[in-house]
TrEMBL record:
It comes from Leptidea sinapis. Residues 1-127 form the Photolyase/cryptochrome alpha/beta domain. GO terms for biological process: photoreactive repair. This is Photolyase/cryptochrome alpha/beta domain-containing protein. The lineage of its organism: Eukaryota, Metazoa, Ecdysozoa, Arthropoda, Hexapoda. PANTHER family: DEOXYRIBODIPYRIMIDINE PHOTO-LYASE, DEOXYRIBODIPYRIMIDINE PHOTOLYASE.
Length: 231
C-alpha cells in the first residue's frame, strides 16, 4: 500500500484479498514509511500517518495484519517478504518518478518466484488501459478514457473479514513517534478543518456534493477552496 492508503474502494486491496482467498493464506498490508519525502512538512506526514492509523484499525477488524515498515519499498519490503515467506506482492500505481524508482528497486530485489502485481487503484480506467503512450493534453486522452468507462466504471465490492489468520503478530506501532521522527519542517502545523482517513474523506465529499457543488461554477476561489478545483 502506498498511494491509495485505504481499505475500501481500493481495487489493489480487493485483488490482493482475492489472491489470498484463492490460495487460502493470510493477507498482510505493508506501508513503507520514509523519513523524508521531497519538501513535505509535518503537516503532510501527520495527515498521512493518522490516516494510516485508521487503516490499521480497520484491517485489524477484518483479520488482516497491518505492518508499518521504516524506509522506502526497495529497502524495506524485499527482505520482509523473505523473512515472512510471503507468496506474492500486490502494489498500487503511482506514475511519479520517485515512487516508480522504489518499485523498480522492489522488482530487482524480490526473488524470482515471488510475483509482483501492480493494480491501478487510483484511476477509474487503469492508466495502461487508457493509453499505451505518453499523452500531452486532456483533449487527446479524454476520448480514450470515455470509450472505456462502460467497462471500468463499476461498483466496488467490500473487502470482507479475512478467514485466514496470520501466524505472526505485527510489530506494535507507536503512531506519535512515527510522526515526530520524520525529517520534516515542523513549523507548519497539522490542519484541523479536515480529518484524515477514508470516512472523513467521504464526509468531505458528501458535504461538497450536498451544499457546494451547485455553486461551484460561480463561487469558486481556487486558492482557498476546500475541495480540489480539478474535480
Amino acid at each position: 500500500m502506498s498511494r491509495d492508503s485505504r481499505v475500501q474502494d481500493n481495487w489493489a486491496f480487493l485483488f490482493a484479498q482475492k489472491l489470498a482467498l484463492k490460495n487460502e493464506v493470510p493477507l498482510h498490508v505493508c506501508f513503507c514509511l520514509i523519513a523524508k519525502y521531497l519538501d513535505a512538512s509535518v503537516r503532510q506526514f501527520h495527515f498521512l500517518i493518522k490516516g494510516l492509523e485508521k487503516v490499521a484499525e480497520e484491517c485489524n477488524q477484518l483479520n488482516i495484519s497491518f505492518h508499518l515498515l521504516e524506509g522506502n519499498g526497495a529497502d524495506a519490503l524485499p527482505q520482509w517478504v523473505v523473512d515472512h515467506k510471503i507468496g506474492a506482492v500486490v502494489c498500487d500505481f503511482n506514475p511519479l518518478r520517485v515512487p516508480m524508482s522504489w518499485l523498480e528497486g522492489v522488482k530487482k530485489k524480490l526473488k524470482k518466484d515471488v510475483p509482483l502485481i501492480q493494480v491501478d487503484a487510483h484511476n477509474v480506467v487503469p492508466c495502461w488501459e487508457a493509453s499505451d503512450k505518453q499523452e500531452y493534453s486532456a483533449r487527446t486522452i479524454r476520448g480514450k478514457i470515455n470509450s472505456k468507462l462502460d467497462e471500468f466504471l463499476t461498483e466496488f465490492p467490500p473487502v470482507i473479514k479475512h478467514p485466514y489468520k496470520s501466524k505472526f503478530e505485527p510489530e506494535p506501532i507507536d503512531w506519535e513517534d512515527a510522526i515526530e521522527s520524520r525529517e520534516a519542517d515542523k513549523s507548519v502545523a497539522p490542519i484541523e478543518w479536515a480529518g484524515p482517513g477514508y470516512l472523513e474523506a467521504m464526509k468531505t465529499l458528501k458535504s461538497f456534493l450536498d451544499t457546494r457543488l451547485k455553486i461551484f461554477a460561480t463561487d469558486i476561489c481556487a486558492e482557498s477552496s476546500a475541495m480540489c478545483p480539478g474535480i
